[in-house]
Amino acid sequence: HLHLEDSLPVIDSFQFDVLGGTWVGYISLFRKGKGKDDLYLVEMDGSFTGINTAKMAPRAQETGSQTTGAPARETELAGNISLRFPVSTDPDAAINNLSGVIRLTHIGSKTLERLLYAMDPYESNEMIRKQRTILRQGTPLWVTVEIRSGNLSLTGEVLVKGARISLPTIERFNIAALPIRKKLVKTFSSLGPVVNALKALSANAILIDKGKIQLVNQ
């Protein structure tokens, strides 16, 4: 199912096992822009089920709670994802060009609590604080996360004593403010060889300047 479009790889369909669950979908690489301002992006659509987040960080703890030892359903994820993210050495450009929608048809209460804790470990955001309060009283039914231009929005519903209650909406939360920013900076900074390889793959011209040969896009 692998082929090339404009010299860049496309996988029409894939399926693999990850963190105790299954992920199926489509993934492609494409180039946006020309010359020095070009940007390589990964586009991915897919669905997943049975993803156990406890296997991702089994020792992770939240304030007053711990995921280790929790029932499997409390730490599992299922849903679908449509995501576009850049392959760039510039973390700010990468975050600002990140976009997508993640619809979770199942998310364990422990997993959602971990997500909210990561977003606001000091409980300074009123909407996140309200979400965590409601979450402690019930079970999540569904959650939708939308990402646009480096900002995150989150909506969902929780079942509390037989009643469906909407979570207070989180709007335009700056992803750059997340504690994982330092890890993102380190990750993106190491992508130089990957970006250079993509430029070579998609080059459509050879430039010879003062005896130096370069593969370029025109």
Helices and strands, in order, run as EEEEEEEHEHHEEEEHHEE
What general outline do the C-alpha atoms trace?
globular
In percent terms, what proportion of residues is strand?
Answer: over 45%
Give the terminus-to-terminus CA distance.
Answer: 29 Å
Q: Which regions have little confidence, pLDDT < 50, spanning 5+ residues?
A: 58-68
Report on the biggest sheet.
10 strands, antiparallel
Please tag this protein with its features.
14 strands, alpha+beta, 5 helices, single chain, two-stranded antiparallel ribbon, 218 residues, ten-stranded antiparallel β-sheet, 48% strand
Write the layout of secondary structure elements.
Layout: E1 2-5, E2 8-18, E3 21-32, E4 39-52, E5 61-62, E6 65-66, E7 76-87, H1 91-96, E8 99-107, H2 109-119, H3 126-135, E9 139-148, E10 151-160, E11 163-166, E12 170-174, H4 181-189, H5 192-202, E13 205-209, E14 212-216
Antiparallel strand pairs: 1-2, 2-3, 3-4, 4-7, 5-6, 7-8, 8-9, 9-10, 10-11, 10-12, 13-14
Helix pairs in contact: 2-3
Please describe what this structure looks like.
With 218 residues, the chain is an alpha+beta fold. It has one domain. It is 22% helix and 48% strand. The strands form 3 sheets. Strands 1, 2, 3, 4, 7, 8, 9, 10, 11 and 12 form a 10-stranded antiparallel sheet that branches. β13 and β14 form a beta hairpin. The longest helix is centred in the middle third of the chain and has 11 residues.
